[in-house]
Design brief:
Elements lengths: L1 H4 L2 H6 L3 H15 L1 H5 L8 H12 L3 H18 L19 E7 L11 E3 L6 E3 L7 E5 L6 E5 L1 E7 L8 E8 L4 H18 L5 E3 L6 H9 L3 E3 L9 E6 L6 E6 L2 E7 L5 E5 L2 E8 L4 E11 L2 E9 L10 E2 L6 E2 L2 H4 L3 H4 L8 H6 L4 H12 L11 H26 L14
Helix pairs in contact: 6-13
């Protein structure tokens, strides 16, 4: 209720005798008589809630989060997300087959950064309440960095075409302020969700994902649709010599491009057409390939190039079919393949159609800001803020569950599972 009313005081103020009786009736109907008997006859006061928050909820947060994550997976499957009985088009997956994620930084409860501040005019020492969990973070990518003070939170969600039927699958605190910290938490969350959601085909993220993160998820069989980091520059990849023809292939904009010599002595990278994206699932890891069509004067031929994964000595050896010699691994060549070659290149129509699904997470961040008084976190300390964030995602998932029940066809069985803890 705090995330609906905007503050703890207003949330407790709305629990007049009649709404409190309705709440106890709902608990009795869904959780049983024993759970309803544990609730007092009158609504708790603000002091009683703060005591329970510090002594009960904060200390049992790990158990609450574990049960929440289990219920959200059930709710997502019940609402028709990540189905396993529909076609899987890896070049153009559906919205309900993808996980979307991003992180945001709600503003700290107060602007004060120190507990005691001296007035430069009068010399008076003024005391302020400082949030011990707040720190400085950078937002808006590497081009337009803005400094924000607060706590950083990662969200993973999924939805179908219905905007209000979004299911939040994970919420995690990000302790560090750099991209690597956010991306590491995101990779662990996506890997855990993929193990529980077999119908998940991939993830949609922003430029915080680098090659090492795409490599980790690609080996697990997931597509990674995100924009390349601004520091990635074109580089040479492989030189092909079919007969008398020479093809100097390099990496540009996340795909293979052929170096074309111009009349003025300069060169230009010309994108090589991709016939299809191939996925080969192994026992321990998956592999991804682009099947290219390389045009020549007397026709064209195909060439298969690995993408999305940087090979290491631990991977299976590959051999050149023309010479029979072993092809050096990417790490031996100093070539970070997952950084330069994407599964769905950025400069393609498929990427432009699928990557906008990530903007759905931005609306979730806006809902979080609107749910707080003055768009600032209303709890001090990390433990209490975790409880607030858990309440926020529970309220949104409960709304999604209710909308799903109202929009389902008449006569359908109630298979949806509410995400309450």
């Amino acid at each position: 209720m705090m995330t609906v009313t905007g503050s703890k005081r207003s949330a407790l103020g709305t629990l007049s005798p009649k709404p409190w009786r309705s709440l106890r009736s709902a608990v009795r109907r869904h959780a049983g008589r024993r759970a309803a008997i544990l609730l007092p006859a009158e609504a708790p006061s603000r002091h009683q809630y703060l005591y329970a928050e510090n002594k009960l909820l904060a200390r049992g947060f790990d158990l609450l989060q574990e049960r929440f994550e289990a219920r959200t997976v059930q709710q997502a499957l019940a609402q028709g997300l990540f189905p396993t009985d529909i076609p899987r088009n890896r070049a153009r997956p559906e919205r309900r087959q993808l996980l979307a994620g991003d992180a945001t930084v709600p503003k700290a409860p107060s602007r004060a950064e120190r507990a005691e501040i001296e007035d430069t005019t009068t010399g008076e020492i003024r005391t302020h309440r400082v949030d011990p969990a707040a720190r400085l973070y950078h937002e808006n990518g590497e081009d337009k960095k803005t400094v924000v003070r607060g706590t950083k939170w990662f969200f993973a969600s999924a939805r179908d075409d219905g905007y209000r039927q979004r299911v939040i699958l994970a919420v995690q605190h990000v302790a560090g302020g750099e991209y690597e910290d956010e991306a590491a938490i995101a990779v662990r969350s996506f890997a855990r969700l993929h193990a529980q959601l077999p119908g998940a085909m991939g993830v949609v993220y922003d430029g915080a994902f680098r090659g090492v993160h795409r490599d980790t998820l690609g080996r697990r069989g997931l597509l990674v649709i995100n924009k390349r980091h601004g520091s990635v520059k074109p580089r040479a990849c492989v030189l092909l010599r079919p007969g008398r023809r020479r093809h100097d292939l390099g990496c540009d904009q996340g795909r293979i491009a052929e170096r074309i010599l111009l009349d003025d002595g300069t060169s230009h990278p010309w994108p090589v057409p991709v016939i299809r994206l191939e996925h080969r699932e192994g026992v321990s890891k998956s592999r991804w390939y682009h099947l290219l069509r390389i045009d020549r004067r007397h026709g064209s031929h195909t060439h298969r190039v690995p993408v999305g994964i940087t090979s290491t000595p631990a991977d299976r050896a590959r051999y050149d079919p023309s010479t029979g010699k072993r092809i050096p691994r990417d790490t031996e060549r100093g070539f970070h393949r997952a950084e330069y070659l994407q599964q769905i290149p950025e400069a393609t129509r498929a990427h432009r159609l699928v990557h906008p699904y990530r903007s759905d997470v931005e609306s979730l961040h806006n809902q979080l800001d609107q749910s707080m008084w003055n768009k600032r976190m209303i709890s001090h300390g990390l433990d209490r803020q975790k409880i607030f964030m858990l309440g926020f995602v529970l309220a949104r998932n409960a709304t999604s569950h209710q909308v799903h029940l109202e929009r389902r066809p008449q006569g359908a069985s109630e298979t949806a599972v509410p995400s309450g803890v």
